[in-house]
Structures are given as C-alpha cells and as structure tokens.
Specification:
The chain has about 350 residues and is α/β, with parallel strands linked by helices. The protein has one domain: Metal-dependent hydrolases (TIM Barrel), CATH 3.20.20. It is built from 13 helices and 16 strands. It has an eight-stranded parallel sheet with strand order 6-8-9-10-13-14-15-16. A two-stranded antiparallel sheet has the order 1-7. A two-stranded antiparallel sheet has the order 2-3. Strand 4 and strand 5 form a beta hairpin. Helix 4 runs parallel beside helix 5. The longest helix has 21 residues. The radius of gyration is 20 Å and the shape is globular.
Length: about 350
C-alpha cells in the first residue's frame, strides 16, 4: 500500500494533531534513519519496537449502525501522517484496535459490522505488514456469535489478538454469559487487549461532570480497575488459566493499590465470596495479565514493573491521542532498568505475544 495520497475509504485514523515528541536522537534511545525514521538502539542492538495501544476506525463498518464518525478534522486522510509520526518517535509496529461502539447493536447488524470491520482491517494491515498488525473485534453482547467471530478472525483472517471494552452494555466481563468467548480466546491462545469505554453508569449522576474531563481522566482507568477486579474475584481467570489479557493505561488503578484487594480477603472474609485460587496481587504478577506503559513518569513505570514484573509490561502510546508522545524516551527514563529490561518493554514481549518477528 502506498504511503502517500488519500487513505482508502475502508479505514481511517482518529485523533488530533500531536505535538512532536523528543528529537530523534534524544536520550540515547535511537538514531535518526537516513530518511527520517528513528531506529531504536539499545546496547548497540537494533530493537524492534511494538506499540500495543493505537486506535483506528473503519467508517464502512460504523455506517452499518449509523454510528457518527469523529469530526472531519480528527480523521487522518493520509496513512503517511501516521507512519511519519511512528518514524519520528521510533515506533516500528502498531497493533491497531477499535473501541467498541456496537455493543448495543442488534444481532444481524452487529454480525455485518464485525464482518466488514475485521475484513477491512486485515486488508489494511496486509498493505503494510511490517508496520501494522490488528486486534480483531467481536460482538460480545452475543457471546456465542463473538466466539465464532474470534475463531474466524484468527483462523481465516490471521489476526493475532482481539480487542474488548471493560464492560459490555453495562455488564461485567466476568458475567458467566461471556464464558464461551473467554473459552474461545483461551483455546486459540490469542492476546486480548482491554480498552475501557469509561464508567458510563456514573455519568448520569453528574459525579464526573465539571472540569478535568473526568469521564476520561478517571473514568477510563476506573473501568479497567473494575473489570480486572471482577475477573479475579468472580473466578474468570481461574476458570480460564490460559487467558492472556493486556490492560490499557497501565491496568488502571489496580496495580497501584492491589494489596488492598489482598487485604479484603482477611478483613471481610464473609463478604468476599468464594475465594480466588490466589491472592489478587498474584494474578497481577502471575502470567495472565499484561499492562501497557501509559503511566506518564519513570517512577510510575518503576512501580508498575515492581508490581507486575518486567515480563508483563509493554509499550503503549494511545495514538493518536497525545498521552504519550515520546514513547521510547519514556521507557528509557525508567529508573533502575537493565538494557535487557528495556528491550522487553520496547517490543520483545509484545512481539512474542502477537507473533511478530523480532
């Protein structure tokens, strides 16, 4: 696929103009390519960087349920813009995901929307296979259909993972009705990328109104915190021990305060319900959960790594939303890491999870 000219109508990138990050050679984390592409080098070794958290939208799919597209000024009309930003910041590969807007759609419409969406995203990624991979989408409000969609996406279309929200039309992902979906993800061994839609049940109360865009600033990480907590305490992670879930925004607030989830088991043992097989903190460190690097400070990242383990933290930018405009330098600034640790976060771990040649 050419990187100049208009982007095919089948897919569009959503966002706003991003302020340039650090210069190509800043921080010792890479050198500018002869054509402007930053090549990330650690200990003299060229590192392939993989961003697990990057957004896009498929307009043809959105039209199926008349979902309004973003304002025209937020649509990328040229894939070259995205590639230029990736080149500038040192991101080699983006794993593209789509925030679910179809969880309340009727079955036939949802089936058609997902068909279009997955096929178009596959087509797009195939045009730049060294730069993009995709997370499939599924109609989780119909768990049996979602299981079929994931199997088709993986076995027929070649997806390496599937994206979900932190809830489905107000229902928690730990609800037993979703077991067929989780069972299929476990069977196929695909990574599930969890991106929140916010705690929308709080919005009518007005508690998140006012200044600070709290629906996003607090609401998004809060939904992830709730979702992961239910998956632990309701036994979903125990039921499906082969699940691999990558939680956006550093897993929300859970990794920072997970010891309270341990403590509730002894503080209120009669109100916890059937106990999970492990302490909640052990699930964070135990192999099923991964967390992206949108933590804003080196100290925040250091603490996340201390809680989750170095093998469970991966690079994320939230592109095109400018939460992390200097992703490589952000990783290079984490205190106390070895070069081998930095290589894992920058791309080695995500490449393994997504089947990307490193």
């Amino acid at each position: 696929m050419p990187i100049s000219g208009d982007l095919p109508a089948s897919i569009a990138f959503v966002g706003c103009e991003i302020t340039a990050g650090a210069s190509a050679a800043a921080g010792g984390g890479g050198q500018p390519h002869a054509h402007g592409r930053r090549e990330v080098v650690v200990s003299g070794k060229r590192v392939k960087t993989v961003d697990v958290h990057a957004h896009c939208i498929v307009p043809d799919a959105a039209k199926v349920i008349n979902h309004p597209l973003e304002a025209p000024g937020l649509l990328w009309s040229n894939v070259g813009d995205r590639l230029a930003q990736m080149d500038k910041t040192g991101v080699d590969v983006e794993a593209l995901s789509i925030n679910p807007f179809w969880y309340r759609a009727e079955r036939d419409a949802a089936a058609e929307l997902i068909r279009i969406q997955n096929e178009k995203l596959t087509e797009f990624c195939a045009g730049q296979p060294d730069r993009f991979v995709g997370f499939a989408t599924a109609a989780l409000q119909f768990p049996d259909l979602a299981a079929e969609q994931v199997e088709h996406a993986v076995k027929k279309l070649g997806f390496r993972g599937v994206g979900v929200a932190g809830s489905v039309a107000g229902q928690d992902l730990a609800n037993p009705k979703f077991h067929p979906f989780w069972a299929k993800c476990e069977e196929l061994g695909v990574l599930v990328f969890m991106h929140p839609l916010g705690t929308r049940e709080l919005e009518p109360s007005g508690r998140l109104a006012g200044n600070g865009l709290l629906t996003n600033t607090i609401g998004n990480p809060l939904e992830t915190t709730i979702a992961l907590s239910h998956l632990i305490f309701e036994g979903t992670l125990d039921r499906f021990p082969g699940l691999k879930i990558c939680a956006a925004h550093g897993g929300g607030f859970l990794p920072s305060y997970a010891s309270r989830s341990d403590a509730v088991i002894t503080t209120f043992p009669d109100r916890v319900g059937p106990l999970p097989k492990k302490k909640p903190t052990e699930y964070i460190r135990g192999g099923q959960l991964y967390f992206d690097s949108i933590m804003f400070t080196g100290e925040g990242m250091r603490h996340l790594i201390a809680e989750a383990g170095i093998d469970h933290v991966v690079l994320g930018t939230d592109y095109p939303f400018p939460w992390n405009t200097a992703p490589v330098d952000h990783i290079m600034a984490i205190p106390g890491l070895s070069d081998a640790d930095r290589i894992k976060i920058l791309g080695a771990t995500a490449a393994k999870l997504l089947g990307i040649e490193s």
